[in-house]
Amino acid sequence: MRKDFVRRVPVILAVLLIAAACTGQPAEGGGETDDAQREVIVLAAASLTEVFQSLEEPFGATRSDVSLQFSFESSSTLVTQVQQGIEADVIATADEVTMGELESGGLLAGPPQVFALNELVIIVEPGNPRNVQGLPDLADPELKVVLAAEEVPAGAYAREALGSAGVEVEPVSLEEDVKAVVSKVSLGEADAGIAYVTDAQAAGSAVSTVPIPEEHNVVARYPIAVLNDAPNDNHAQAFVELVLSEEGRQALSESGFGLP
Amino acid sequence: MMLDADVRLRLGELLLEVRLKAAPGQLVVLVGPNGAGKTTLLRALAGLVPVDEGRISLNGEVLEDTSREVRVPTERRPVGMVFQNYLLFPHLSVIENVAFGLRARGVSRSEARQQGAVWLERMGLSAKADAKPRSLSGGQSQRVALARALATSPSLLLLDEPLAALDAPARAGVRRDLRRHLATFQGVRILVTHDPLEAVALADRIVVIEGGTIVQSGDVAEVTARPRSRYVAEFVGVNLFRGRGVGDSIEIDTGGALAAPDARWGDAFAVVHPHAVSIHRKEPEGSPRNVWRGTVEGCDFEGDRVRVRIQGTPSIVAEVTPPAANELDLVDGGPVWVSVKATDVVVYPA
Amino acid sequence: MTQGRARRGSVRRLPAFAFPAVLALLVLVVPLVGLIVRAPWGDLGAELAAPEVRQALVLSITTSLWATALAILFGVPLAWVLARLEFRGRALLRALIVLPMVLPPVVGGVALLLAFGRRGLIGQWLDQAFGITLPFTTTAVVIAELFVAMPFLIIAVEAALRSSERGYEEAAATLGAGRWLVFRRVTLPLIAPSLGAGAALCWARALGEFGATITFAGNLPGTTQTMPLAVYLALQSRPEGAIVLSLVLLAVSLGVLVLLRDRWFAAA
């Protein structure tokens, strides 16, 4: 009896493994017709976390059989995931360069549309105890400044802004994404950082902000597009339309985004 | 110049309460059933288990005195110990094992090695100096363990079942060597064993511990001739009865009586050697004054003897030769007659 | 007869056990093969020559070695206490020590910030009394790695101490060796193989540490950017470069582990 069972274990394992492999493959034939109980997978830049989550309810109100599934990462990570063949319907990034890579790679169903603008802002500890007035103050070697890493859009924009203002900053850390910049400042580990207006707003009273003048600021343009292999493209298109609609624009504006 | 130990300690189920004195040059052998506290006593003397209450002094030096809160730690006691499974350090060579104690006591490396070499030569193990302990035979390991313990010149040598780890054929030779090496040691020697042969072969004095207390102590002849407990009687292989002397016989507490010329009066022990017990198929006639019926409970073969356990009033063990056992046609549960000459019943006061 | 049957039985059982073994091997090895197959071997030279890569590699190796050394220095005594002393709450203490192994490293990093950060329990005192702030320093990298990796060493050493014959230590004591000498000359050599294995595990874990490091120490090339952080950030902009960096990390760890195996595990 026992021996029989032992001999069967690998067989069971193999069956499980094969089963797992099969579900990993998108059901190509049935995908179009079997719309019931489908998820629309949205890949979005980390800075869109709050606003996209707030759109979940209006989207579901008209489509009870479809649910939204978000994956918030830095834009460059999302692009890498799409290039490696992740299964998803919609992508929204924090800059046009990363989206451009997907477009030129033929991975998009249509041309990307810019739906939101974001600006940079200096974030400091609540009440601005170190009295930071603008970008030049960040050059103070006594000040612990954190920036996003150059590899992610927020970091590239911050560097652009500092360059345009002619300020040389020696950051203590180059964080992996803009949310990490905000949390380092809100935890009091860093004195100042550069983040998107929207992230500063989402952090609430945990940080104070110091504006960056228009002439040095960088406007991040957020494009959105349906992916080429979207298994669920009519619902994916519906989500893009919601983001571009008046309702979507209002939500974006409430979160601190600029509108195109 | 002696060991004087008064030890009381509780360790799990065991309550050890022992007063033990031993003189230098004397080999004291501790015997007793498993769990009686023999090894615990050794460990207490070595300082490996703390004494709850009591005093241990060696050659006038106090090693432990609970009333004055004196407790010399193990490493500062002038004690050498040979453990049951020898515990030679597996990562050190044989000579490093022997030199370990000297090195620990601050002797220089070269001096310690030199002395270690002398010890190994004495033990006939010079060729094994650089070998690892795992390549040694049981007897060789035992000699290295002994050399390691003696190399530090202790005043007290403790040996915990030094032959138990050996297989039977090797024992006789190793026992002979051990006896020879122990004879050269001038301090107090205490050895634990549960092997009667070992005790009789090595002991100057036997101390019997049962249930944490000393029940008997004396020289070998005394203890074997007059056991004072069932364990000791079995240990030395005799029948022991406890009872009350009534003139020329003894009434046994568990039933029955034995005629004995010098029984006298009062509480007494009676000892009957198994070879003095005769077995008969029919009721014997003639001189034996002690004759009774019994049934065979079982037979144990021990070398060229058969020990026959007989149930009756009293129950007794007889020892016969295999041909005799064959002739008697002994079967378990079979009825037999037992006889013992009155002069073979040794009685002594309890 | 019976012997023959037994032998045939064991042969027949072999494939049943070989199958899951092969599956296990596949799970472990296929991802590595994926890395090797997809690696842009042509760019290998250029990637390796990049100063940032060398910088990250040197930082990774030095911080992980520091973490391992400190883990041995502090972890072995702690393992000894756990294995040898009887006290109340020992089971709880052991659970606490294992906790960093199951804690998501990022959470570990946050916990470290709350303890040693500028506003942390101990960190604020360090800052006020000595002007020392740990986050964003190489020291913070070592602490993060120590936090995550030390349990591996402690577990290995404690298990070895528990299973090692205490009699050897007692024998050494009867020969006149005090506690420290016993520990140095008897206990330590006896557990050396396990200590070596534990240290290797600890080192490997420290070398691969990412989450606690980036959260607690931040990411600055030359100061706190270790190889895993460099790999992660490279992944953001040029995945090919990330693969090359990963291969470098793999090669170094493989080399060291193989070397240690010959040195330390041979005796075990």
Q: Mind sketching the topology for me?
A:
The complex is a heterotrimer of chains A (260), B (350) and C (268).
Chain A: H1 2-24, E1 38-45, H2 49-54, H3 56-62, E2 66-73, H4 75-83, E3 90-92, H5 96-104, E4 113-124, E5 145-148, H6 153-165, E6 173-175, H7 178-186, E7 192-196, H8 197-203, E8 208-211, E9 219-226, H9 233-244, H10 246-254
Parallel strand pairs in A: 1-2, 1-3, 5-6, 5-7
Antiparallel strand pairs in A: 3-9, 4-7, 4-8, 4-9
Chain B: E1 3-11, E2 14-22, E3 27-31, H1 38-46, E4 53-58, E5 61-65, E6 70-71, E7 79-82, H2 94-104, H3 109-122, H4 138-150, E8 156-160, H5 168-183, E9 188-192, H6 196-202, E10 205-210, E11 213-218, H7 220-225, H8 230-236, E12 239-252, E13 257-272, E14 277-280, E15 290-302, E16 305-312, E17 316-320, H9 322-328, E18 335-340, E19 346-349
Parallel strand pairs in B: 3-9, 3-10, 7-8, 8-9
Antiparallel strand pairs in B: 1-2, 1-4, 4-5, 5-6, 10-11, 12-13, 13-19, 14-18, 15-16, 15-18, 16-17
Helix pairs in contact in B: 2-3, 2-4, 4-5
Chain C: H1 2-38, H2 44-49, H3 51-84, H4 90-102, H5 105-116, H6 123-130, H7 138-163, H8 166-174, H9 179-208, H10 211-216, H11 227-237, H12 239-265
Helix pairs in contact in C: 3-7, 3-9, 4-7, 7-9, 8-9, 9-12, 11-12
Beta-strand fraction estimate of chain B = 35-45%
**Protein chain pair with the most extensive contact, residues per chain:** A-C, 32 and 28 residues
Radius of gyration of chain B: 24 Å
Q: What is the arithmetic mean of pLDDT of chain C?
A: 86
How would you summarize this macromolecular structure in one to three sentences?
The complex is a heterotrimer of chains A (260), B (350) and C (268). By secondary structure, chain B is α+β, with helices and mostly antiparallel strands.
Describe what you observe in this structure.
The complex is a heterotrimer of chains A (about 260), B (about 350) and C (about 270). Chain A has about 260 residues and is α/β, with parallel strands linked by helices. Chain A folds into 2 domains: about 35-115 and about 220-255, Periplasmic binding protein-like II (D-Maltodextrin-Binding Protein, domain 2), CATH 3.40.190.10; about 120-220, 3-Layer(aba) Sandwich (D-Maltodextrin-Binding Protein, domain 2). Chain A is built from 10 helices and 9 strands. Chain A has helices spanning about 1-25, 50-55, 55-60, 75-85, 95-105, 155-165, 180-185, 195-205, 235-245, 245-255, and strands at about 40-45, 65-75, 90, 115-125, 145-150, 175, 190-195, 210, 220-225. In chain A, strands 1, 2, 3, 4, 5, 6, 7, 8 and 9 form a 9-stranded mixed β-sheet that branches. In chain A, helix 4 runs parallel beside helix 5 (about 95-105). The longest helix of chain A has 23 residues, at about 1-25. The radius of gyration of chain A is 22 Å and the shape is elongated. By secondary structure, chain B is an alpha+beta fold. Helices cover about 25% and strands about 40% of the residues of chain B. In chain B, a hairpin with a 2-residue loop joins strand 15 (about 290-300) and strand 16 (about 305-310). Chain B is elongated, with a radius of gyration of 24 Å. The model of chain B has no long low-confidence stretch (mean pLDDT about 90). Chain C contains 12 helices and no strands. Chain C has helices spanning about 1-40, 45-50, 50-85, 90-100, 105-115, 125-130, 140-165, 165-175, 180-210, 210-215, 225-235, 240-265. Classes of the chains: A alpha/beta (about 260), B alpha+beta (about 350), C mainly alpha (about 270). Chains in contact: A-C, B-C.
